[in-house]
Amino acid sequence: MSIWRVILSIVFPPLAVLDKGCGSVLITFILWICGWVPGVIAALVILNNPER
């Protein structure tokens, strides 16, 4: 995970997980709309997952 991805996930979380698939983007976007912190946490968890 690069530093630019971390910065992007803090600023706009759905854009940071764009290459991880439609489901990840949708989940992150919904959480980001509900609140900024849940969206950032979801993006960082998705980016840190080595399986995807």
Automatic annotation (TrEMBL):
Cell compartments where the protein resides = Membrane
Key words, A-Z: Membrane, Transmembrane, Transmembrane helix
What the entry lists under InterPro entries is as follows:
PMP3
GO CC terms in record? membrane
Q: Name one Pfam family in it.
A: Pmp3
Give the principal location in a single coarse category.
Answer: membrane
Q: Where are the transmembrane segments?
A: 28-47
Q: Which domain of life is it from?
A: Bacteria
Spell out the family assignment given in the record's similarity comment: Belongs to the UPF0057 (PMP3) family.
Protein name, please? YqaE/Pmp3 family membrane protein
**What organism is listed for this UniProt entry?**
Winogradskyella luteola
